[in-house]
Amino acid sequence: MTLENAPDEVKLAVDLIQLLEENRLPADTVLAALAIVQRDFEKKRAAEQQR
């Protein structure tokens, strides 16, 4: 499978991985930030589902 045919979430994941690796951030910092992002988007999704 080529990236151009990959699902959007795979494309986004690849872009995020590249961005984080290029900035040489510590893994613990990245994982903590991703947990914050996940909580934020889960709240947004829950709010959208209540509409």
Could you characterize what this model shows?
The chain has helices at 8-22, 27-50. The model has no long low-confidence stretch (mean pLDDT 95). The longest helix has 24 residues, at 27-50. It has 51 residues and is mainly α. The chain is built from two helices and no strands. It is 76% helix and 0% strand.
Briefly characterize the structure:
The chain is mainly α and 51 residues long. The chain is flat and about 40 Å long. It has helices at residues 8-22, 27-50.
Write down the Rg.
14 Å
* N-end to C-end Cα span: 37 Å
Number of helices: 2
Mean pLDDT: 95
Shape: flat
Report the sheet-strand fraction: under 5%
The helix fraction, in percent, is over 70%
Which runs of at least 5 residues are low in confidence (pLDDT < 50)? none
List the helices and strands and how they pair.
Layout: H1 8-22, H2 27-50
Notable features of this structure?
51 residues; 76% helix; 2 helices; flat; mainly alpha
